Amino acid sequence: MPSRELPALGYGAANVGNLFRALTDEEAWEVLDAAWESGIRYFDTAPHYGLGLSERRLGAFLQTKPRDEFVLSTKVGRILRPNPEHTGGLDTAHDFHVRDDLTRVWDFSDAGIRTSLDESRDRLGIERIDVVYLHDPERHDLDLAVDSAFPALERLRAQHEVSEIGIGSMVAEALTRAVREADLDTIMVAGRYTLLEQPAAVDVLPACDETGTGIVAASVFNSGLLAQSEPRRDGRYEYGTLPDELWERLVRIADVCRAHDVPLPAAAIQFPLRAAAVRSVVVGGSRPDQLRQNAEYAALGIPIDLWAELADERLIPGGQDA
Questions:
Q1: Radius of gyration for the chain, computed over Cα atoms and rounded to the nearest angstrom
Q2: CATH number of the domain to which 108 belongs
Q3: pLDDT-derived band of residue 322, with 50, 70 and 90 as boundaries?
Q4: Range of 183's domain?
Q5: How far apart are CA 51 and CA 288, in angstroms?
């Protein structure tokens, strides 16, 4: 069961790890400062983000803030080690504009999970990490995650090294299995429960409701498709082009939002929070104005008639908690 309250809106710090484009340290600080000044008090990061750069930048910023005023999460499962094949290139194969002088090494052993946590603490410069997620375990070995990594996390929680443990993934099957076969507090659902598509509603949300597991919804803009009120047909969709069926669905959702005078991004941020199990929505952003705008969208009043019409049109599941 979740042990503490999570703020409804959080910042996912992949962008300050130079996701998609390089930021200077000063630019990254301005983004984080805008998040803080906008009232955001939950920050999520990972070693994967910029080969540790996100953790270092986020930690440097949060060290200037009172520790009891924010919630911090990071991830384990990949440890960073020197890259023997480094020849001066960048980590653009993973979409991060940082030197690839380090490489990610999967390690789901008890020692590997503990080492990952300790090294994240060192990069962050912050001892107390509230939530630790196992990051994308299905990309390595989900069976090994269930047999080894999750028990290792459970031991860390029992030893009061962390407050909550979970999984972060964009694969509904992996999320469901983790919830049912491990004793998790909170899971991070990336892109699988959004205004545009809700595959997690089939199995993940019912499993969480049954076990009392909380959900943090991430990637709620669907690779940016929901980030502006007027959708673009040439928008990126995960790792490829946008399927026609989803484009048509997106247009219909945007039409309903427009009819109710609600910005599409505001509906995208607030939609997941209507589900009882969802504790927080985490959004990214690489510019201060994006963070300020997202905070405004999160606080915007949305008429219940909007949700009712979307449900009537079968664009979102019905029967959600208002």
A1: 19
A2: 3.20.20.100
A3: very low
A4: 9-223+262-312
A5: 23
Specify the pLDDT at position 301.
97
Answer whether residue 242 is part of any domain: no
> What is the predicted pLDDT for the residue at 223?
82
Question: Which residues are designated catalytic?
Answer: 49
Cβ atoms 298, 269 nearer than 8 A: yes
Which structure tokens are listed for 175? 């999320």
Give Cα separations from 137 to 158, 164, 187 (angstroms).
22, 17, 13
Q: Is residue 319 part of a domain?
A: no
pLDDT > 70 in the chain, percent = 96
Residue 134: inside a domain, yes or no?
Answer: yes
The C-alpha atoms of residue 322 and residue 275 are separated, in whole angstroms, by 8
What's the CA gap between 280 and 10, in Å, rounded?
7
Q: Report how many domains make up the chain.
A: 1
210 is a domain residue: yes
- pTM, 2 dp: 0.94
What are the percentages of helix, strand and coil residues in the chain, rounded to 5? 40, 20, 40
Which residue pairs from 237-243 have beta carbons closer than 8 angstroms and sit at least 24 positions apart in sequence? Answer: 238/191
pLDDT at 4: 66
